[in-house]
Amino acid sequence: MTQRIICLFMVWILLSIFGCTKSESDKSLPVAKENSQAPDISVISVTDGSTLKLSDLKGRVVLLNFWATWCPPCRQEIPSMMKLEKAMIGRPFQMVAVSVDEGGKPVIESLFKETGYKLPAYLDLEGKAVRSYGITGVPESFILDKNGVIVKKIIGGFDWDSPDVASYLEGLMK
Fold first, then answer.
1. Is the pTM of this model over 0.85?
2. Domain 29-173, what fold?
3. How confident is the model at residue 12 (pLDDT cuts 50, 70, 90)?
């Protein structure tokens, strides 16, 4: 009986500590969830420094991916993302790979040079995109339909060049 009381007490303590992790200011941010309008974000292109506003991509299916150079599952899914992007050339599709790296452009360019990888990489300099989408880890991806509605959220690495993915995306493009 004593062990049961101690166990219940420990559970109560853990819930008290971890049950409220978001601050009041975080609660006012839009929450990105499936079947809702995607929060509009602005990110900076690693390639040319231009600003991309997500709302400017309406009319295209978007793969919005949050990743980092230091993340093994992120690095593992990059080749399949590259194949998907190549397969979607000429179609109403846009990949937006937002890096959460603190080192910014230099660490991304270093990874691309070292590995030969190449993605349409963007920076979230102020962390607004990460907060708007409620990112808890990387990789996390969102598929947006042509109207900017989140139709799928994927947590963790994914095989992006599978025929099922291409078929799904093509269905969204119609």
1. no
2. Glutaredoxin (3.40.30)
3. very low
